[in-house]
Amino acid sequence: MIKRERFQHLAKALQTMPVVALIGSRQVGKTTLALEVSKQLKKPVTYIDLESDTDFNKLTDSEAYLKRFSEHLLIIDEVQRKPDLFRILRGIVDERKRNGERAGHFLLLGSASNDLLQNSSESLAGRIRYLELNPLSLTELYEDEKDTFNLEKLWLRGGFPDSYLAVNEQDSWQWRNDFFTSYIERDIPAMGVGVAATQLKRFWKMLAHYHGNQINLSKFGRSLETSHTTIRNYLDILTDFYMVRQLEPWSGNIKKRLVKSPKIYIRDSGILHSLLQISNIEALFSHPIIGASWEGFVIENIINQLDDRWEYNYYRTATQTEIDLVLHTPDNEIWAIEIKRSSAPKLKRGFYEACSDIGATQKWVVNANKESYPLPREVEVIGLLDFLTIIQEKQKI
Fold this sequence. Notes:
By secondary structure, this protein is of the alpha/beta class. It has 18 helices and 13 strands. The model has no long low-confidence stretch (mean pLDDT about 90).
């Protein structure tokens, strides 16, 4: 089994907090991780799946049922399906704390960030810690597979465990198509989102063609014969369900007109390729999306490696002077990152101008190579895995 980087974070959180929420997309491995971590706890564990009618009905009188497990860790899966539960959990947590049980009361698993955060933040303020679980990352898989690891396989298939670990490309492709269909037709509607499945499906596929770019909401609205506010709603839905990342622009105080719209990325590269009908690596290499696909893959792996002390944006002026990713480190450094797939990347003058604009203290070009080497004007070319390792080491300081 692949050791998830969140394993120790989750184990530590359960030892220090009464309630922990592990949130992330469906099929990303939350239940598997929760059950694995629970095996090392020195207390009984009870698992409740709110997608099961039987388990859901057990919580008809939630307070009475949950109080029966006073010394257990209760894992409650798909907790957003019962939003009235959070208020009840607060009373149970406070009662347990009065009895001397300080931590490890409830582990909540959820697939919808906004609903989960809004319903729990007030009721459980000061009693809950949130952890996000993402699809399998480059560092997790490299640690597990070492010499057999294939970067192109992860890039093509994406990081959802069932897609990446499929026996062959056809099985991976079929899993992603099934995932897309079930997410649109079953999972999102089941969480109370009242959007027509056919319309959201068209929007999601259309959005894939704009991966790595800003989008014009009004233009999308005209294409789908709806309003720009409805398009904004679609975009926010896919963001809340961990399918889309909206990378916000840098907004520092300089005397240049900056682009103010977010860049849009399909978060999982495998889902992106499925939406674009890219079924194998040869098709990817010949597709116009290849550069933007690599950019999104790199950005997602970097952002998922960062802890809460980092900030991240992209930088672009109205004259198209641009930096793909700007990182603000915990010790107030500013890292400018250009993303190129080429083994011999060439930088435009605009990158250096942008670095000067933001006062970059480190300048990097992240590519698919395994070797690092310097370029003029204090720029370092580095492979993605080595760059992620630098971030890991910096976070240990």
